[in-house]
Amino acid sequence: MTMTGGKGMLDVVIVGAGAVGACLCHALSVRGFEVGMVDAETGDERASVRTSALSRASLRHLSDLGLWPLEGVEPSALRALQILDRGGRGRLRFDSADLGEEDLGAIVNHGLLEGALRKKARALGGPWYRERAEEVTITDSGVEIATKGGGRVRARLLIAADGAQSTIREQLGVPVLQYRYGQTALCADIRLGRAHEGVAWQRFLANGPCALLPLPDAHRASLIWSTADQEAQRLRALSDADFARALHDAFGDHLGPLRVEGERARFPLVASHARYYTGPRFALAGDAAHRVHPLAGQGVNLGFADAHALIGTLQSARSRSTDPGSRRVLRAYERERKAENLAMLVVTDLLNRAFRDNRTWVHAILGTGLNVTDSLPLVKTFFMGAAGATTSRTAHDAP
Ligand SMILES: Cc1cc2nc3c(=O)[nH]c(=O)nc-3n(C[C@H](O)[C@H](O)[C@H](O)COP(=O)(O)OP(=O)(O)OC[C@H]3O[C@@H](n4cnc5c(N)ncnc54)[C@H](O)[C@@H]3O)c2cc1C
Questions:
Q1: Nearest-CA residue for atom 4 of ligand 1
Q2: Is 115 near ligand 1, meaning CB less than 6 Å away?
Q3: Nearest to residue 18, comparing CAs of 159, 148, 106, 115?
Q4: Taking burial as the number of CB atoms within 10 A of a residue's CB, which of 86, 180, 208, 316 is the most buried?
Q5: With respect to CATH, is domain 9-74+108-178+272-357 assigned 3.30.70.890?
Q6: Domain coordinates in residue numbering, the chain
């Protein structure tokens, strides 16, 4: 057990120092809340094979919270998004220039992002337990977390940010709607034959979308290839040369010859949504509350938006000297976030199904939208929104 700080009743205890929990921990501590963290992660922070696309809205939120730019995180500007249909012909392009912006967001290494956020949160010196939270007890006046190593942390509010398989959510008895896509995302670093020029490419294939996201090196991209579970297993077992050939066959020649570099990681894809995000003395945030298909690169962006809303709610409760764990305070957070998270879950799910659908009329519609008008309104609005282009500041922006 590693503990850095005092005992007694804290304002907030957070379980889970992924990107969302670490961001909350830092921001609430800076705003004068006494915050404790319980996080199972004990290993070193290092680069992961997986990247995350951060929307402009997330970058703005992080910057407002003093968390962007981040030391050790080298962003790659996302200047445009190019979408191809199953035939590889149709095109839908979203360009930052159309918005009068320099970029649509940034691509970052997810492991480094998490590591840098954790480092910022830890530097503030609140109690930090590097071990699993095992048991939750809620009383009228507070919540107590029992950790694996025998530690006990008490606070007026518990924030569960312990990810999609949240055991805290389970212990709290929050029902969750969960759906396995039967798809697995394969992630790897890819060397490109042609420079990416800051463009992310996404092609919708019969078994799922395949995306190449630009990395800081102009000839490297991060692959996120969502495909049927068995196909992912087969692809993962191929030699580097055979995998590169399969990827080239799937993706086409848009970026020249493709070569895989290093490890191929796999992530089984699941959609989930908690029936409610809050209850007496607790709130769920990030993947613990909702998990969406990665095709629009939105999971952690939604989590940062949760964090932003929760910080605003808790801050305004404090200015009225209201208990941060009260139902009334927490419901305001839930009301603010639920509709957007649910909408994103539904739309990503529909897009994933629509592009995989074999029926010709579905493809006729998608093809028309992609080829002829370059402006299939629903899809375009969705991706622009996903890139943060349509998200404005809220009243909760930090002081
Ligand atoms: C292939 C793939 C690509 C993606 N691409 C994007 C993208 O481009 N853009 C985007 O926005 N999102 C993307 N996402 C989604 C994004 O990665 C997640 O939404 C995000 O990581 C969730 O962060 P989190 O902090 O909520 O949870 P997590 O990252 O799951 O963190 C949970 C933390 O809780 C800790 N923990 C768990 N249980 C306990 C316990 N009992 N006690 C103590 N600690 C505990 C864990 O150790 C961990 O540190 C992608 C996801 C996948 C799978």
A1: 294
A2: no
A3: 115
A4: 208
A5: no
A6: 9-74+108-178+272-357
